[in-house]
Amino acid sequence: MVKVAIIGVGTVGESVAKILETNKELICARAGKEIVVTKGVVKNLSKKRNVKIPLTDDINEVLNDDSIDIVVELMGGVDDALKVVKTALTNKKAVVTANKALLAYHRYDLQAIAKELPIGYEASVAGGIPIINALKVGLSANQIMSIKGIMNGTCNYMLSKMMSEGVQYEAILKESQELGYAEADPAFDVGGFDAAHKLLILASIAYGIDAKPEDILIEGIEDINSDDMEFAKEFGYCIKLLAIAKKSDKNVELRVHPVLIKDTQMIAKIDGVMNGISVIGDFVGETLYYGPGAGGDATASAVVSDIMEIVRAGQSSPMLGFKKPHESQILKLLPIDEIESEYYLRMSVIDKPGVLADIAKILANHDISIDRILQKPNSFKNQAKLLCSTHTCKEKQIKNAIKEIEKLSTLKDKVSMIRIED
Ligand code: NAP
Ligand code: HSE
Fold it and tell me: Which of 36, 119, 225, 354 is deepest in the core (most CB within 10 A)?
C-alpha cells in the first residue's frame, strides 16, 4: 500500500481526493498498488468541504509521519510551499505539486535536493494537458524549435467572452474566480505572471534554461479594451494571451504578452478556459495539444497521474527532464530589447492636420515601417483614435518610438501596444 497526504484541500485538493475515491479500483489496478490518502492538511478546519479524508491543520503531522510515502503540495504560494516541499524531500518523501509559482523560482533548487526522489509536476502547466510528459518523453528525440501556447485558462476565458459577447472586464474576471479558474490573487493571471511561470517550467525541460520571471518579457491583459477588439475584428485577428519560447542558433527568447493573431490560425480557435500549446520539433514538425487548462477536476487528473506514475515507476528520471541538459551549454536567453515582432499601436489624439504625419515621422525615424492604419472618431470632441500596425522591428525600436510619440502635445493618453504574432 502507498500512503499519500494532501497539503491543501481546496479547489484542486478536493478534486484529487474525489478522483482517488471515485476511480479507486481502476487507479490501483493501473498503478499496481493500493493508493490510500491518509491525511489532508488545511488552514481552516471549520470550513465546510466535500471530502471524506481525515483532515488536520498541523502540517507536521504529515511531514514527520514516516509512514507517508507521497506528499501532494496543493496549498499554493511560494515561501511556505518551498519550506514544505524541501522538508518533505529531506524526509525522503516523493512530492507531487501543481504549484507553478514555486517551480518558476525554485525548480533547480528542488531538483538539487530531490536527487533521485521523484517530483511530479504535470499539473503545473496547462492543467489537464500532459504537456510535461510530451516534452520529457514523447518529443525528447527532437530539438525544440518553438513552444507557443495559451497557458492561462482565466485570461483565455476572459478574452474569449470579451471578444464574442462584449462582456466587461471586471464582470468576467469575477466569473472566472467563481468558477475556480483564477489564482488566489488573480493579478497573477491577468498580469501574465502565471503563464510566465508555466513557460519557464517548459523552457527548463526543452532548453535547460534557468531563468526567473524577472528575466523575461511579461505583459498582461489589463489594458485590452473594446477598441482593440474592434481593430482585431476589422483586420481578421483575435486577441490571445500567448506564452512563447523560440530557439535560434545560440539564443532562446521567452515572452508572455497579449497578441493579435490571425483568426484562421488553430490557436486562435481555442476559446474559453481551454489551453492550447503548439510545439515544433526539428524532426516531428508541429504538434498541438489542447485541453482544459484550469479547474479542480482537470488539474487533479494530472496530479493523480503523477501519483500513479510514482507508484508504478518508483525512482524517476530527474524532474527537469534530463540528467545532462545538453542545450543549456549552448543556449542563452535573448535580451528583451532584441526580440522582434510586428506591433499594433492604439493612440488617442487631437484631430487636426499634421498629427498623423508627426507620428509617421517618429516611426520612420526609428526605422519602423507602418503596415496598416485606421482612424476612428473618439467620444471626446475634436479627438480621434488612431489604430496602426507596423512591419517587423525590434522591441527597443518600438519602445523608443513610443516614448517619443508620448511626448507629442497632440497625444491625449499613453500609447497602448499589442504585438502581432503570425
Ligand atoms: P485553493 O482553492 O486556494 O486551495 C488551497 C488550499 O491550501 C486550501 O485548502 C487552504 O486551506 C490550504 N492552505 C493554504 N495555505 C495553507 C497552510 N499554510 N497550511 C495548510 N493549508 C494551507 O487553491 P487551488 O486552486 O486548489 O490551487 C492549489 C495549487 O494548485 C496552487 O499552487 C495553484 O497555483 C495550483 N493550480 C491550480 C489550478 C486551478 O485551476 N485552481 C490549476 C493548476 C494549478 P483552507 O481551505 O483552510 O483555506
Ligand atoms: N489560474 C490558472 C489559469 C490555473 O487560469 O490557468 C491553472 O494553472
Answer: 119
Choosing from 75, 103, 151, 274 the residue with most ligand 1 atoms within 8 A of its CB, the one to mutate for a pocket test is 75
Q: How far apart are CA 357 and CA 361, in angstroms?
A: 6
What distances in angstroms separate CA 98 from CA 49, 125, 181, 305, 346, one per listed residue?
20, 8, 13, 12, 37
- Grid cell locating 298: 482537470
Q: What is the DSSP letter of 411?
A: B
Using CA positions, which residue lies closest to atom 4 of ligand 1?
10
Model pLDDT, residue 8: 98
Atom 7 in ligand 2: which residue has the minimum CA distance? 294
- 7-61 pLDDT tens trace: 999 999 999 999 999 999 999 999 999 999 999 999 999 999 999 999 999 999 9
Q: How do 217-218 and 251-262 pair as beta strands? A: parallel
Mean pLDDT of 361-381: 91
> Ligand 1 pocket: which residues have CB below 6 Å?
8-13, 41-44, 47, 59, 74-76, 80, 98-100, 123, 127, 180-181, 183-184, 294-295, 299
Give the fold, CATH level 3, of 143-291+328-333.
Answer: Dihydrodipicolinate Reductase; domain 2 (3.30.360)
Compute the distance from residue 10 Cα to the ligand 2 centre, in Å: 14
360 sits in the region (left: phi over 0; alpha: psi -120 to 50; else beta) called alpha
CATH of 2-134+297-326, one of 3.30.70.260, 3.60.140.10, 3.40.50.150, 3.40.50.720: 3.40.50.720
Which numbered atom of ligand 1 lies nearest the CA of 76? 32
- Respond yes or no: is residue 198 known to be catalytic: yes
DSSP element (H, E) containing 257: strand 251-262
Question: What is the pLDDT at residue 326?
Answer: 75
Atom of ligand 1 nearest to the CA of 75: 7
CATH topology of domain 336-421: Alpha-Beta Plaits (3.30.70)
Q: Which three cell numbers stand for residue 239?
A: 486577441
- What residue spans define the domains of the chain? 2-134+297-326, 143-291+328-333, 336-421
Q: Nearest CA to 96 among 114, 75, 122?
A: 122
Q: Catalytic residue, from 93, 198, 246, 385: name it.
A: 198
Global pTM value: 0.95
Q: Which residues have any ligand 2 atom within 6 Å of their CB?
A: 127, 152-154, 181-183, 189, 194, 293-294
Which residue CA neighbors atom 14 of ligand 1 most closely? 75
